[in-house]
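Input record, target 12 of the design panel.
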């Protein structure tokens, strides 16, 4: 006699995981959510969108890459979900969209209910921080494809923006200021390079190296900052003088900013306006990572940039400070000197 459990899939463990995650999911909701978890689909009341002239639905999907391997090695699973939410919802807000709801997908080698519950608790916490409802998800057990302690996560979110309020490169003008918001760490990008450095330099995740504020593992698992509510507040307060945002993810500062700069203009960042994060400098120096490679792999200290009319630069910084978000003027948008030149680049040397 062969059973599903004999094949490596434990249905009872899956049911236990669902029970453990219910409380977390309940905290990550919105009034528009209809029903609870357990159905075949999540339901969201979209009648509120009738108040918009031309509601545009925006969608984004992402994962957290090989940062999951750091979580696995440390046996710490309660923060990686925040990274997932941040990677998804902060892409939505770049176009001015308010995230409405999110679904997740967790693939594991073996369902360990408490571990799944920790991952989902992080996802729910991220949804709370961004005002997003967690309305569904899937946990898949893949025996034989993944080792028992291996896992991967992905998610997708849907948001909405009224067409007349959509942010885009077309709004950006010469003379606009670039307001930088600090990263909380490496976020969820460049971990393949990080893991290569850990291996090649024989670095210990459990060691607190000189200059680092915590053990290397704790630093690397620091969850990604979620900028959604801060950005939405700026949009509401500043209107058309808030041009657009750039979410600094894989590809680094220059490449991501170039995505929101129109032809004929370029964004110039001044490195001397901020210091390279200690952990970034530590890893780069440990393995002699070239600066160009470092800046195309990691965020180097900036997690989100806002491009704004120069008349509101100081106001934006004060507004973010009032919300607990430190920010600074990191650059300016200027006319391009050459049509073939990059639309975004960095000058000077980092402070300190």
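The sequence produced for target 12 reads:
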């Amino acid at each position: 006699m062969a059973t599903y459990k004999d094949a490596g899939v434990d249905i009872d463990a899956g049911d236990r995981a669902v029970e453990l995650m219910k409380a977390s999911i309940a905290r990550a909701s919105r009034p528009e959510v209809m029903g609870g978890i357990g159905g075949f689909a999540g339901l969201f009341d979209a009648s509120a969108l009738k108040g918009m002239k031309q509601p545009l639905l925006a969608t984004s999907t992402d994962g957290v890459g090989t940062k999951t391997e750091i979580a696995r090695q440390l046996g710490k699973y309660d923060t990686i979900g925040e990274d997932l939410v941040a990677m998804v919802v902060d892409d939505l807000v770049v176009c001015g969209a308010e995230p409405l709801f999110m679904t997740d997908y967790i693939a594991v080698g073996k369902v360990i209910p408490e571990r799944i519950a920790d991952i989902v608790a992080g996802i729910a916490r991220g949804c709370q921080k961004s005002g997003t409802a967690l309305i569904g998800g899937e946990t898949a057990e893949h025996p034989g494809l993944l080792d028992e302690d291996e896992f991967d996560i992905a998610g997708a979110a849907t948001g909405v923006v009224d067409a007349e309020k959509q942010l885009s490169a077309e709004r950006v003008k010469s003379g606009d200021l670039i307001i930088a918001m600090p990263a909380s760490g490496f976020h969820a990008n460049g971990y393949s390079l990080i893991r290569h450095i850990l291996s090649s330099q024989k670095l210990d995740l459990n060691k607190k190296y000189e200059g680092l504020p915590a053990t290397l593992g704790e630093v690397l698992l620091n969850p990604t900052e979620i900028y959604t509510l801060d950005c939405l507040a700026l949009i509401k307060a500043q209107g058309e003088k808030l041009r657009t945002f750039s979410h600094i993810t894989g590809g680094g500062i220059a490449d991501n900013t170039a995505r929101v700069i129109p032809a004929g203009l370029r964004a110039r960042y001044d490195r001397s306006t901020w210091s390279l994060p200690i952990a970034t400098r530590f890893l780069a120096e440990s393995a002699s990572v070239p600066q160009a490679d470092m800046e195309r792999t990691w965020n180097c200290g900036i997690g989100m940039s806002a491009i704004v009319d120069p008349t509101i630069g100081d106001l934006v910084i004060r507004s973010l400070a009032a919300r607990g978000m430190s920010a600074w003027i990191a650059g300016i948008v200027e006319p391009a000197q050459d049509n073939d030149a990059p639309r975004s680049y960095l000058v000077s040397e980092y402070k300190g």
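The first strand starts at residue 33 and ends at 34.
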